[in-house]
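Summary for the steering committee. The consortium agreed at its last meeting that each partner would contribute one worked example illustrating the joint modelling workflow. Our contribution is presented below. We chose a case with several input lines so that the handling of multiple components could be demonstrated. No manual editing was applied between input and output; the record is shown as generated.
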Amino acid sequence: MTTTPIKFYQVGSFAVGNRLLSQDDRSIQSDPDRTNALTSGHRACQGCGEALGARYALDAAMRACNDQLIAVNATGCLEVFSTPYPESSWRIPWLHSLFGNAPAVATGVAAAMKAKGRTDVRVVGQGGDGATVDIGFGALSGMFERNDDVLYICYDNEAYMNTGIQRSGATPPAARTATTQAVGDAPGNVFGQGKNLPRIAMAHEIPYVATATVADLRDLEAKVTKAMSFRGARYIHVLVPCPLGWGSASCDTLKIARLATQSALFPVFEAEKGEVTSSTPIRKLVEVEEYLKLQVRYAHLFSPTRNDAVINQLQAIANKNIARYNLMPQNAEN
Amino acid sequence: MLRQVEGSKAIADTVAACRPEVICAYPISPQTHIVEGLSAIVKAGKLTNCEFINVESEFAAMSVAIGASAAGARAYTATASQGLLYMVEAVYNASGLGLPIVMTVANRAIGGPINIWNDHSDSMSQRDSGWIQMYAETNQEAADLHVQAFAIAERLSLPIMVCMDGFILTHAYEQIDVPNQEDVDKYLPPFTPRQVLDPADPVSIGAMVGPEAFTEVKYMSHMKNIQALSVIPQEAAKFAQVFNRDSGGLIRPYKMDSARNVVIALGSVLGTIKDVVDEMINDGYSIGVLGLTTFRPFPFDAVRDALVNAHNVFVVEKAFQLGVGGIVTENVRTSLRGTATHDQTLIAGLGGRPITKQSLRAYFEAAVEGRVAELTFLDLDQELADSELAKEMSRP
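What follows is the complete predicted structure of the assembly.
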């Protein structure tokens, strides 16, 4: 009789489960007593990156403050799919006011808590890239500049998805949206525009700024936990693929988010008081093409004829990120 | 105790006595002295458990107030003119969410052309926003209305604008009995929110409401507004008991007993109007004044009852609807539906133009004799306007 030796997963690999981790190191989601900010039954699309990101982020935030959490939400997909009256998927106190004012409303909630001496209650503001980068930017910058005690999380799917996939200030170059159509001499969104909000946040010299993606949810949890250890204005920018808007398969959400980081188009890093303190090294560098090819919003770069000029321009952006954020330290050492 | 004090300073002291927990401030003339006063009071430690926040815009000011109010804090802000328009989206949101925010509107014209002086175009533009609107005739009343405003707002869970004429009241130094802390504490109970963001009892506020329930939500808001018509007089009566003076309420009739002609107005111009009316009564005219303290919700029944003996009403307005005419007049006319009372509109004081006794008297005398048009602009340079209009009309 032959016996098959038991194979354990290695701690630290992407494939690791929670089984070999100590209780404290396990994902909040694997805990039977896990916090549950955004519960089931909401109306997000299949494969929605934002729903996943919001659940992990807010559950980690709840854990970090002993469930004493209030969330303020900008108008957008997250707000619409989670609270179709009379239903709500939120298990935490939650307030939606308008599209462009979530950071200011969060400031108001935090001020109320401070006035009442409830410093144990913490406040999270959240919204999509349109609410954050565009229409709510003034309010966000004001909240940063005053260093109000709010953690603001942007779920960036790189366009206005709730209104039907229109360009935002976070839409990347060459991407097709309903208002940057893949027609003309320069199809898709133009180059040389757009805002890098994590860097703008850093310029406010707030205590903590981080980027993350839904491809590495443990990293997202860890960054939210770390953000919650600071007082003052904090900002986390989470890349959340949108199958509907990006024209990708619902089952590819995590894969695409991972390719965004591994191609260096989306650098994952942390910053404190305006200085980058760490960046997540790319494990296996891929060409931007690998990331682009899975998304219909970039299909015009490959069909009917391959547009090498534009693909190379996008590759140049990725290369610049590698240098700027030291995403390939193993190469730098050589 | 009477103090010789600037209107804005009296408002700052009064608001502080109401113990707000969150104050958000963005500067716009002529509201600045109010928030400057509050800033000093908070910084000096005279108002504890209060966060004073310098925001980056009026839109943020109202948004911070929304967050604070939803979290159960007594919230206050002040604005005027362009600032009020800049926060409009949040103004409607505050009333839609039923948040009892108190906001001073230091009434000022709206551009363009830009104009910093007083009229009522700003708050009148928000007459359909679902906010209660009360207009102060004097600085004493402005101070008193702020105390009542917190009580009315919190009883109804509705926001209130206390409107006071920019510069004319905000920057005027006069004797004011500024409500003291002891009396305010006696009158104003602590804020008990209807619904609050609390981790111990989580609620979702601001859900998306579709066609299946939106009408009911709006109908209920309407009925809650109507309820203010009974709450406002109750609070005025309660205020009188504690402070021994008459302030607030829905309307303020003056020498109206059996007057055939009644002038209707709101705000500080009522003082000038009363002086003119006194002189005209001395000269044998049958004329009185009806001051509107509450404009939203509009006190239709109270106005109709007050005007039961009036043959003519002259509505003096510091704002109007371009292409239409008087705003207040339309509401008065609704009150008078089915009666034989005539109405005329006098647009006066736009962009801070002085409203003189002389001009008012000339208009009222003509109006009593039926010699005025339905819509008149006081002291209009008709010749200049006509010649410019003629040039415009002659364009191909």
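Residues 214-243 of chain B form the longest helix (30 residues). The interface with chain A takes residues 21-22, 24, 49-51, 53-57, 59-60, 63-73, 75, 89-90, 93, 97, 197-199, 201-210, 213 of chain B (CB under 8 Å).
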